[in-house]
Design a protein that fits this description.
single chain; GMP Synthetase, Chain A, domain 3; Rossmann fold; 4 domains; cytoplasm; nucleotide-binding; Chromosomal replication initiator protein DnaA
């Protein structure tokens, strides 16, 4: 192998990889790479952006070591350069108010909500990882994970975390340029600048930022022209080592966006905000009540939390309504008052037919996994355990043969489903957290 030139070794590596990966993956990640020059025994590759470099090293380092020589330090004899056409142009440090046009950026910037800070964010098992990662990013923006992608259902705290990052960065890094915007506002901004023929000014503005916070990226779906400009801005900032945080109601792979943009978003730190468990919902209710200046008895908080469980925003709305009603009517907070005041918000059971697809969707949301993974043959614990929970629920809630139920899980056998049901049935008796997760899944299915 050592008698071959680095170029010949690279060609052999490409031939091997092309046979293993899909045509789309090869075209996205390997076709754009160009050979530069040979420096003694080192292979120099020209890549269009840092994403391709990171993808190659993170996913194919072991394979590369089989084809390329290794230095005395143990590192591959490999170096990279970024294509000149993709390098970000150096920008002068111009104040934001000079870069922004009066009719666009200042008007569209999202003002950070003063209540959306880390101090007011109630942490629980469903959001602990997201909060920890967000605090790390806000402490050292652009250093740990230059891209963070936060996804989760409506009203679970994605915007709260986004604004919390903005607050902390502005507080601790006063010289950094922080900009928070919704995807809809970004689209409107682009339209305005196209109309006013000031697109270059908009590009300079966004590429001058140190921290870009983008809310609700799902609104970029089915808008290819706007998506392309966002992707260019995205790449420019990442190549400069700047920080980007994006929120969405779905993980990247479930968005109807280009493979190019999805691949870049999946390259970053992808974190899910799940539905809060019962204790977290109780803590949220009591914290919101404290902010409003009234005491919420723990028994009442548990009663409300057991009936409102899908949406943190609804919990806050329940506290606002309950507080206003009791103050105006001069009533003490009792369960009867809660039922009469919040009854229409309570999520009660219905008689709709439950299907395996509904179960998979509910379990995927609670455990933060993809529906496609639950139906796949992946055996890692973070996927196989939720899959077993889904099988348990299917047997418990659907009156059908084991064979037909199992086939809905990607063609599994009835013995696999029966084994999963027995395992979860045994665990649920002694695992309180699992019992609550299953109860939550049942409520989601019945709501």
């Amino acid at each position: 192998m050592l008698t071959k030139t680095p170029q010949e070794a690279w060609s052999e590596f490409l031939e091997t990889v092309e046979k293993r990966c899909s045509p789309t993956e090869f075209q996205n990640w390997f076709a754009p790479i160009r050979l530069r020059e040979e420096v003694s025994e080192e292979l120099c590759l020209e890549v269009p952006n840092i994403f391709v470099q990171e993808y190659l090293i993170n996913n194919y380092k072991k394979e590369l070591s089989s084809f390329l020589s290794v230095k005395a330090t143990g590192e591959l004899s490999l170096s990279f350069t970024i294509s000149e056409t993709k390098k970000a142009e150096p920008l002068p440090q111009i104040p934001l108010n000079q870069l922004a046009s009066p009719s666009s950026q200042h008007a569209l910037e999202v003002k950070l909500n003063p209540n959306y800070t880390f101090q007011h964010f109630i942490e629980g098992p469903s959001n602990q990882f997201v909060k920890s990662a967000a605090v790390g990013i806000a402490t050292r923006p652009g250093k740990s994970y230059t891209l963070m992608f936060i996804h989760g259902g409506v009203g679970l705290g994605k915007t709260h975390i986004l604004h919390s990052i903005g607050h902390q960065v502005r507080e601790r890094h006063k010289k950094l340029r922080v900009y928070c915007i919704t995807t809809e506002a970004f689209i409107n901004d682009l339209v305005d600048n196209l109309r006013n023929k000031s697109l270059d000014r908009m590009k300079r503005f966004y590429r001058s930022l140190d921290v870009l916070l983008v809310d609700d990226i799902q609104f970029l779906q089915n808008r290819p022209n706007f998506e392309e400009e966002f992707c260019n801005t995205f790449e420019s900032l990442i190549n400069q080592g700047k920080q980007i945080v994006i929120t969405s109601d779905k993980p990247p792979g479930q968005l109807k966006l280009s493979e190019r943009l999805i691949a870049r978003m999946e390259w970053g730190l992808v974190a899910n905000v799940g539905i809060p468990d019962l204790e977290t919902r109780v803590a949220i209710l009591q914290h919101k009540a404290e902010q409003k200046g009234f005491r919420l008895p723990q028994s009442i908080a548990f009663f409300i939390a057991e009936h409102i469980y899908n949406n943190v925003r609804q919990l806050e709305g329940a506290i606002n309504r309950l507080n206003a009603y009791c103050r105006l009517m001069k009533l003490d907070i009792t369960q009867e008052v809660v039922e009469s005041t919040l009854g229409e918000l309570f999520q009660t059971s219905s008689h709709k037919k439950i299907s395996v697809d509904n179960i998979l969707k509910s379990v995927a949301t609670i455990f933060g996994v993809r529906i496609s993974d639950l139906k796949s043959s992946v055996r890692s614990k973070d996927v196989s355990f939720p899959r077993q929970v889904a099988m348990y629920l299917a047997k418990e809630l659907i009156n059908d043969s084991l064979m037909r139920l199992a086939s809905a899980f990607g063609g599994k056998t009835h013995s696999t489903l029966l084994h999963a049901w027995k395992k979860i049935a045994g665990l649920v008796k002694k695992d309180e957290r699992l019992r609550r997760q299953i109860d939550m899944a049942r409520r989601n299915l019945e709501a």
